[in-house]
Amino acid sequence: MNRIEWDQYFMAQSHLLALRSTCTRLAVGATIVRDKRIIAGGYNGSIAGGTHCIDEGCYVIDNHCVRTIHAEMNAILQCAKFGVPTQNAEIYVTHFPCLQCCKAIIQAGIKVVYYAIDYKNHPYAMELYSQADVKVEQVELDEMIIDLKTKEKIQFVADLLIKLTEAGADAKEITALHEQANKLFSSYV
Ligand SMILES: [Zn+2]
Ligand SMILES: [Zn+2]
How far is the CA of 95 from the centre of ligand 2 (A)? Predict the structure, then answer.
């Protein structure tokens, strides 16, 4: 049995959190970890009790959605709310953090930033991290752990089956392949 690596486990957690995002522009998740334990998590969304972008559209000023609070901020503020120290912690984020979050991460005493996806990586953020001795490392999520392309895969298999039928493949064989595909994807349909 293969155990998944810690960095994959925490990065997967951030990707799961991103699925809770309420902003339609970008879904981000962040997990704060200390001594291999998850101490907080966040996603980008509205202030508690506020209206959601997914319901009423984004509130865009200067090309930014101002309604939402970023995933990294939410995770750090969760620690503030419950009095959990972030000193020497690590953060796993789905996307490279923006400048504001970069500053908050450094100021919270977080020492390592793992991110999965390059996103408008600001050179000034890299400068600040290096000045503060914060390590930054890209950790891409292994798709064997969380499959975020299931819908596309189902569509791909469906298209292949149609092509096979059109190409005049044996009807019995096609039926068997259909059943096999239905079994594999049944929990998603
Ligand atoms: Zn929004
Ligand atoms: Zn941010």
Answer: 9
